[in-house]
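Memo subject: From amino acid sequence to discrete backbone structure tokens
Keywords: amino acid chain, backbone geometry, structure tokens, three-dimensional fold.
Body of memo: The sequence and its backbone structure tokens, given next.
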Amino acid sequence: MRDTDVIRLAQQTFLAMKNPWNSVEKVYPQAICAARRREKVHYVGVKNTAAIPVKLLGTLREEGYELHTLDRCSVNGRAVDMALQNPLTGRPMTGSSSGTAINVFLGINDLGIGTDGGGSVLAPAMSLQCCGFISPLLEAEHMKKYEKKSTDGLCFTPSLGFIARDLEVLGEAVKLGLGMCLCEEEDLEEKGDIVVICSDSLREKVQDCLGGPERSGICPAEGGAKHAGIRLETRKFPPLDSEREPLITFLREHLPMCDVVISHEKRIDVDGLGDSILGHFDRETRASQAKSGKQFIRVANMAGATALCIPDGSLAGGFVLMCQSEPGKIRKLFETARRFPVIKDELLERYFRNMDAYFPCGVLEAELYGG
């Protein structure tokens, strides 16, 4: 491993130990020892919950994903973490995999592992312009032990999920976590158009993000006429600020009819807090909860879907891509996601992931080291 890569890993540990946003429970500095035996190492943060299986960590470690931090999370799986602050918005951090998302965003870790019952991986990832992935296929037997009831009375089994700044890192973790089933030809469906469903109002935006008809194969005509690549169809979506049940029903009805359903979700926990504890009091608090921007990310897991969120460059917003939890459709989910433009915000990179911002040189250091 190059000296610059080793320095980068050391800096990630220094930042974790400084813990500027109180998002780290414990640091494992010995993770840097992996640099002796590998050309490439990715640091991993894990939500502080017993639901994360050691088996999954072992699988990832074999390919250079080293446990680096134990991350703070919201108490009792709450949808907002009143003890942590979103570094971007200054609002209470979206939960429950709150610290895990913060530590990936800051660059402390390259990959985060959390659990998602009603948006607890996807929502914090999106609130910090990171990519997120969940699937009930990840350690399915293990996760059956953690069935629970949401604060609004819905029974569900949480899914494991990943958070990363880069779709490529996320995709590699998904392949490892799913046992390479995405690459086995016998598990893949016949090649053909990827059938994508979105709302009427979202059609033009999806076409633009996928590069237009020439690049993506999307047909701009009404009715979704077939072209090589992606066939985009529209449906009437339920009110996106509605209760969970209509959204769950919509997904269960439409996911079997297509390869991918896409929604666009904006300003997560910026204009309101999507928290059912706050929302249960009265009409006014429910209205505030509805302004949280959380839509299908609240129900993807409850509908048994596999879901992937990718940022769109706006504040705490992006696209949510959902599919049936089948290897062939998950492959098409990633094929679709890779056609979206890669968002790189250089200002965020300089402001939040620049070590000089956290370890500035004083007068003495400047004289000694020429800083």
Remarks:
- The chain has 15 helices and 15 strands.
- Residues 183-189, 213-228 have pLDDT under 50 and may be disordered.
